[in-house]
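Q: Entry one of two.
A:
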Amino acid sequence: MDGKLQIKQKINSAISSGDLRELEKVASDISETQTRKEKRSLYEQMNAALVEAAFDEGQPELLSQLVEPTREEIFDLANRAAAIYSEKKDEAWFSAIFTLVDKLDRKSHQSDILARISRDLVQAGGVDSGDIHYIEKGGEAFDKISIRKYRSAILSEIIPLFIRYGQKHRNVEIMQYALQMLPEIGDISRSRNSTPTWPGRLPGPASKPVRSTS
């Protein structure tokens, strides 16, 4: 029991210090615990403390120290990080999304969550707010989707969002781009060599013409 209490104290001390090396040392100490059940319990306690500090104190870098989080936990945390990024435009939270996704072993799980986040950034951040920045960030998430079927499936949801954005914000270029991407959805279902792409930089809202004063 004393050993468990000591580990708990080490966890709290490491989190308070914000020293990632100290947190890594605590995780290493836990890994030497004899029984799997006890080890799992200590990891869960450490993860819970890390998550609480990360979100309550605005320290997304702490999420990199999570040990053996479940798929469901990662999905939840990545969505929470994306929501904070959409609200604050803090790049540390955007980076935390990919740090969390990298903890998933299966590429299909990684692609699944990245596809959802890409769509949500385009919709909530881009279409609803009119900020092209979020559409571009959605593109960054999209580009990291490694499995083609997820890229194709989410693209079929994102293209209508591009059209909505173009209509709402009078952006003809983005609507033209969306229409050009439509064949890529069909192509990808037939050819493994075809991969839908996102433009490096999307056109912003159309500017109003300047009237001549002469």
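Q: Entry two of two.
A:
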Amino acid sequence: MNGFKAPFVAESTVQIGLQLRETIDMEINGTTIVIGEIVQILTQDELIAADGTLDHYKAQTMTVAGLDTYFLPQPVGQLFYAKPGIEPRLIKDAQNSIHKL
């Protein structure tokens, strides 16, 4: 990506460019929380769903749990954005069935 010094994994279907915003040292366990701002995302158009979200299942993005365990995505459902004092509401389920508000 232009303007980014960090290398990207060539096989990655989604490449994200972050700008460092803040680091927070955690005395309790000797780790550092790194907070960045997403300034650029590169991916193929066919991986973007009609509602503008990234289809992680199609992209076969990988996630990590802990330090050394990796998983591939499996859609479960999509919820409306969480807000304090409002119960979670389903937008669509794993079969992409749309739910009314």
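A: Comment on entry two: Residues 27 and 84 are 29 Å apart (CA to CA). Strands lie at 14-26, 31-43, 63-65, 69-71, 77-79, 90-93.
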